[in-house]
């Protein structure tokens, strides 16, 4: 339990580095459970940073490119403005400042902002609620897909293998005190992904009302 100081201290004591990926990340759930989101994403981050600082362990805090929201600046760069608009993104932004706070107390850290991750996930070991994963499953089962909004919303997707290579490099190169975006080079719309999926077994596309976290002008 990342909220439990005793358990976290036992886990990190004696380690060289910690990658902190534990979080509530499903936006519908976090919007509906603000207290639990705060306890996990903010209090949990505080406990982890505190114990890493206490034992001299470098902390790689995983954040999200969602904190840029509908960007105030383009492209969205690490030292630019953020604009979180949902509870998940706000909790991650708060977590970043918690980590920086412990940096003033000697914590060595990096902040790693992930783009939207995809990969081999038809077995649902990854986030099954994400568009690419859902479209892959629909293609596999020869059925239709549904798009929220008009499909022009876009993200900088990154494959899980590329992401892991990046995380390893951060450690191997001894990077400290940096904020780094981990995102793909291309800005891709949901319509582009859906059109691609039509060629691999998807039998039709329907649309429903847009979600508030569907961004239309992201460029990370």
Describe the structure in your own words.
The protein is α/β, with parallel strands linked by helices. The protein has 7 helices and 10 strands. The chain has helices at 5-12, 27-32, 34-54, 87-103, 131-140, 160-172, 190-198, and strands at residues 17-20, 58-64, 109-114, 116-118, 145-148, 154-155, 157-159, 179-182, 188-189, 205-208. The strands form 4 sheets. A 4-stranded parallel beta sheet has the order 1-2-3-8, sandwiched between helices. Helix 4 (87-103) links the parallel strand 2 and strand 3. Helix 3 (34-54) packs parallel to helix 4. The chain is elongated, with a radius of gyration of 18 Å.
Question: Can you tag this structure with a few keywords?
Answer:
220 residues, two-stranded parallel ribbon, 38% helix, alpha/beta, 4-stranded parallel sheet
> Secondary-structure element order, as H and E?
HEHHEHEEHEEEHEEHE
Integer-rounded radius of gyration? 18 Å
Mean pLDDT: 90
How would you sum up the major sheet? 4 strands, parallel
Extract low-pLDDT stretches.
none
Structural class: alpha/beta
**SS summary, helix count:** 7
Chain-wise SSE layout:
Blueprint: H1 5-12, E1 17-20, H2 27-32, H3 34-54, E2 58-64, H4 87-103, E3 109-114, E4 116-118, H5 131-140, E5 145-148, E6 154-155, E7 157-159, H6 160-172, E8 179-182, E9 188-189, H7 190-198, E10 205-208
Parallel strand pairs: 1-2, 2-3, 3-8, 4-7, 5-10
Antiparallel strand pairs: 6-9
Helix pairs in contact: 1-3, 3-4, 5-7
């Amino acid at each position: 339990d990342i909220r439990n100081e005793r358990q976290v201290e036992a886990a990190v004591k004696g380690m060289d580095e910690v990658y902190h990926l534990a979080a509530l990340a499903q936006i519908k759930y976090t919007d509906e459970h603000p207290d639990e989101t705060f306890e996990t994403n903010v209090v949990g981050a505080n406990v982890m940073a505190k114990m890493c600082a206490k034992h001299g362990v470098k902390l790689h805090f995983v954040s999200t490119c969602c904190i840029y929201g509908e960007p105030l600046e383009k492209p969205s760069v690490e030292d630019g403005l953020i604009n979180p608009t949902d509870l998940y993104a706000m909790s991650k932004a708060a977590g970043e400042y918690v980590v920086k706070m412990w940096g003033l107390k000697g914590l060595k850290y990096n902040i790693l902002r992930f783009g939207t991750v995809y990969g081999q996930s038809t077995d649902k070991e990854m986030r099954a609620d994400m568009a690419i994963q859902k479209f892959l499953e629909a293609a596999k089962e020869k059925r239709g897909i549904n798009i929220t909004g008009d499909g022009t919303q876009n993200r900088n997707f990154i494959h899980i293998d590329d992401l892991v290579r990046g995380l390893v490099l951060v450690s191997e190169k001894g990077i400290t005190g940096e904020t780094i975006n981990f995102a793909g080079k291309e800005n891709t719309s949901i319509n582009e992904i859906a059109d691609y999926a039509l060629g691999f077994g998807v039998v039709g596309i329907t649309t429903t009302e847009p979600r508030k976290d569907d961004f239309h002008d992201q460029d990370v």
